[in-house]
Amino acid sequence: MGLAAAATGAAAVTAGTTVPAYLRTPPTAPLPATAPSGRFGGQVVLVTGGTSGIGEAAVRAFAAEGASVVFCGRREHLGRDIARSLGRDVRYVRADVRVPSDVAGLVAEVDRAFGRLDIAVNNAGVSRTAPAHEMALDQFDEVLDTNVRGVFLSIKHEVPLLLRSGGGVILCTSSESRRPGGVAYSASKQAIQGIVDAVALDYGSRGIRVNAIAPGTTDTALVRPPGLPDAMWEAFRNAWGPLNVPALARMATPDEIARAILALCSDDFGYMTGSTVLVGGSPLSGGKMTMPPGFPDQG
């Protein structure tokens, strides 16, 4: 059972459950964001998987820094609401990164709307969790189709427009995840790192930098199940962090990961390509997660 499933089970725990005081509040807190400086003004950014979580945070952060942004996702109502809230230089396109014609249409809209592409953030991804012998083949295929095929298709269609624009940056979302039950998810995220290595070699001399970011567990819908009361989720999240993130002792926020994405896409990292950067709150670790006292064990 994964983190989201364990948290779902937590909703059934009685209100009288006592979580030890030292687990109630994480010992670290996210740093406040700096004031926007317009550092991406005049640049055009494409974000896949931009309707929630890390992707949405990246869309909002790039827009706040002056970029024109096109983003995609399958949940049209969310995409349109985000675009509406950010103004005319942010466009939403409904697209499924598993479908070649959708991805081609997405990049064509970038070209039509803005005539260039400077940065592509390939973030769309899904997760399914089960031991290898229990995972259904269609679940495995869904993860690989979205997380690997989707990244390949995105890069395939982004590169010509990046080249025509004089070069740019591709950043793909990998993961630090090394957990039991992660045969599909871990395989897909390791594959992304291989793609990044190869594409960086293919296009480095032509002005395209290609890297990956590997976030640690982040407070998004990917780990928080729908319908879980805010108070229950906050208790679970705050208790989970010190037991599973030895250094910073908490989950990341989407905004923190988005800030790292912007940094890696900036000229400050102009000599970095073919790299995967861990933003995990602790040195890389794996193994079974420890569930907080009073909450269901992961199993």
Characteristics:
oxidoreductase; NAD; alpha/beta; Rossmann fold; 7 strands; 41% helix; 8 helices; 299 residues; SDR_fam; oxidoreductase activity
If you had to describe this structure to a student in words, what would you say it looks like?
- This is SDR family oxidoreductase.
- Belongs to the short-chain dehydrogenases/reductases (SDR) family.
- Pfam families: adh_short_C2.
- InterPro entries: KR_dom, NAD(P)-bd_dom_sf, SDR_fam.
- Keywords: NAD, Oxidoreductase.
- The longest helix has 28 residues, at 137-164.
- This protein is of the alpha/beta class and 299 residues long.
- Helix 2 crosses helix 8 (254-265), helix 4 (100-114) packs parallel to helix 5 (137-164) and helix 5 packs parallel to helix 6 (183-203).
- It is globular and about 55 Å long.
- Helix content is 41%, strand content 13%.
- Strands 3-2-1-4-5-6-7 form a seven-stranded parallel β-sheet, with helices on both faces.
- The chain has one domain (3-279): NAD(P)-binding Rossmann-like Domain (Rossmann fold, 3-Layer(aba) Sandwich).
CATH hierarchy: architecture: 3-Layer(aba) Sandwich
Domain tally:
1
- SS elements, strand count: 7
Element order: H for helix, E for strand = HEHEHEHEHEHEHHE
Average of the residue pLDDT scores: 88
Across the major sheet, the strand order is 3-2-1-4-5-6-7
Spans with pLDDT under 50 lasting ≥5 residues?
11-17
User: In percent, how much strand structure appears in the residues?
Assistant: 5-15%
The CATH homologous superfamily is named NAD(P)-binding Rossmann-like Domain
For the termini, the CA-CA separation is 6 Å
| Helix content, binned percent | 40-55%
Organism: Nocardia speluncae
GO molecular function, one term: oxidoreductase activity
InterPro entries: KR_dom, NAD(P)-bd_dom_sf, SDR_fam
Family: Belongs to the short-chain dehydrogenases/reductases (SDR) family.
